[in-house]
């Protein structure tokens, strides 16, 4: 199981090419499977942060009959149910997770999506953030400012079930001037 | 009478002998490298060979002092690059991760403490108001309701007043826009600190103290190499990193992705996208310092 998960995460680290032309840049990020390390800018996309042992979903769900009625979850995924805060008035699990293909997500149109393309799912409601993320303004990139970059997916910073960024403990304030000794 | 005078002068001469001897001894105790450093010409006028020699000597000196192999780069600016920085005020939560990443990367003194980045907490009701801001906020968690955060470091002005007041030309703006200090030429007069309207320059009042295990040996001559007591230092956009293509360390650490860094001369760069599409401001615009550090609102 662990091995399976590891190999899955590794396979998700995909390099995609990106020309200096920004229009190309916008388009090419959608071609997530394209491998092109020869161009000037390279981007790697981080794997989705699954909890240990949670993926593939089909492992458990293969023997379960899908029940598409919205309900409160007990026994399994009750932790997610308890924290769920993402337009919870109108949405539940199967609005994003696919009913038939348990290891996939789906768009509102019904089009199936792999977990590594979850940003498209986020983007169908958060279009402005999606647009900014693609050009590198929303979200975080690390690596080289003029070369290889590592992109984080939406879900690396925002828990999809409760997306508001969680408060952090600040590091210590600077020493007051009157307390500086030398 | 005349004899007396003669005697006195001979006596005086003999009296002064030890002083002379001490002086000679003091000079002799300066090793040749210290004398060389003292006589070093302005960095910008040095030939490649002279720079190589200086760098080699510094690496040796730091190795002896810190017991670590140092790299002191003197990599110059690349043509066609003008560095620009963007900071998203709508994202920053004031967690100060950047402050300490900067301290570590740039070998800032821990005690007496020097922070190149100051994170100001401001009230949303007052807007950008330095008089009512504080750097000493310390709640359990950030962001605090009703507040926003504005980190300030060197604004890398196009029209930097700090360099015009320097009496020794120890600080200047490089071709890629980074304002740097040559610590070998800085005499510690602190005129530049008085001239900077952003409080971005910091003085080594004491001998800088850094735990040996935390010293960063990847350095640049004009950036994060260890400083002596009595010189001024400041943010250099991590010159040792960005000239090698890497992001500044504050960009790398920021947990909310509020910090952006790119080439202003590249029309396709992230920073140009920000300038063209977002609401942007610079601090103290009325002073005509023309910063290359842009604050923007991502939302």
Topology summary:
The complex is a heterodimer of chains A (182) and B (299).
Chain A: H1 2-12, E1 14-18, H2 22-28, E2 41-45, H3 58-61, H4 78-83, E3 105-106, E4 112-113, H5 118-123, H6 127-135, E5 141-143, E6 149-151, H7 154-157
Parallel strand pairs in A: 2-6
Antiparallel strand pairs in A: 1-2, 3-4, 5-6
Chain B: H1 2-29, H2 32-38, H3 48-66, E1 71-73, E2 83-88, H4 97-105, E3 118-123, E4 147-152, H5 161-165, E5 171-173, E6 179-181, H6 191-195, E7 202-203, E8 218-220, E9 232-233, H7 239-242, H8 249-253, E10 259-263, H9 270-277, E11 279-281, E12 293-297
Parallel strand pairs in B: 1-8, 2-12
Antiparallel strand pairs in B: 2-10, 3-4, 5-6, 7-9, 11-12
Number of helices of chain B: 9
- Large-scale geometry of chain B: elongated
Percent of residues in helices of chain B comes to 25-40%
> Largest sheet of chain A, described in full?
4 strands, mixed
From the N-terminal CA to the C-terminal CA of chain B, the straight-line distance is 93 Å
Tell me the radius of gyration of chain B.
Answer: 24 Å
Helix content of chain A: 25-40%
**Order of adjacent strands in the largest pleated sheet of chain A:** 1-2-6-5
Give the terminus-to-terminus CA distance of chain A: 57 Å
Secondary structural class of chain B = alpha+beta
Question: Which H/E pattern describes the elements of chain A?
Answer: HEHEHHEEHHEEH
* Content of β-strand of chain B: 15-25%
**Poorly predicted regions of chain B:** none
CATH topology of the largest domain in chain B: Alpha-Beta Plaits
CATH level 1 class label of the largest domain in chain B: Alpha Beta
